[in-house]
Amino acid sequence: MASSKGVRSRGLTWGALSTVAIGLLTTAVATPALAADKPAKPTIVLEHGAFADASSWNAVIKELRADGYPVVAAANPLRGPAHDAAALRSVLDHVAGPKILVGHSYGGSVISVAGANDPQVKALVYVAAFLPAPGETALELTNKYPGSTLPATLDPTPFALPDGTAGTDLYIKPGKFHHQFAADVPAGTAALMAATQRPIAQSALEETTEAAAWKDKPTWAVITTQDLNIPAEVQRYMAKRAHAHSVEVRASHSVAVSQPKTVAGVIEKAARTTR
């Protein structure tokens, strides 16, 4: 039988070993309890709109990540609400846990469909965006009140795919992009945005939506009062109808680029309120 002296020669006494064991056990028990007291933050899923791409969210993503939120910026095909919502749902299916859906511009039509009947989507945030009711189109809503100067800036471009699909893509003319889409963004940044803009199929703006997730989910809206794409009165009408928590911002349609802190703040408020 080993003596206590032999144990000491290895650098520990039985008493010290007991203290270490108790400490490890206490840590093992306490750590899960702490984790349970601090639930994980929901993932913020961002959907861009027409004439933009996922990089339009870059500055907002920086703000959200600095505050500890996981973020995914999805690529929007811009082919039509049903098609694009299916693409977004495939992204949502790969994101575990609760989510906050955020849509800019036409992206609002997409999240309205994709977020319906998904219990993991806890809230919706519409940023200078459409909040269509079932059966409505983006074009119909744009024209509900005067003020949009978008039609005169568009450059229609026919396309044809190998499978026989044909249609018309819409771009904003580069020389008109800054004033129309991003008047409060530095000219150099707006020029880059114009060069990298993603076209939307004209038919996407004429396609009716099939669902409205805002009917039964907490909803926020960032209303841009200097918007030349979706007039502020149109945004107010949709937000009021959806009983959205609205924040009005003196900004262009590209508010996520010009005022990312404001946009991120609204998103985080939605995330905190629904936890």
Automatic annotation (TrEMBL):
Renumbered to this chain, the signal peptide range is 1-35
Species this chain originates from: Nonomuraea dietziae
> Which InterPro entries would you find in this protein's record?
AB_hydrolase_1, AB_hydrolase_fold, Sec-Metab_Biosynth_Hydrolase
Gene3D superfamilies cross-referenced by the UniProt entry? alpha/beta hydrolase
Q: Among its keywords, does the record have Ion transport? A: no
Q: What is this protein called?
A: Pimeloyl-ACP methyl ester carboxylesterase
Q: Which GO terms describe its molecular function?
A: catalytic activity
* A Pfam family of this chain: Abhydrolase_6
Q: Which positions fall inside the AB hydrolase-1 domain? A: 44-264
Entry keyword set: Signal
| Superkingdom assignment | Bacteria
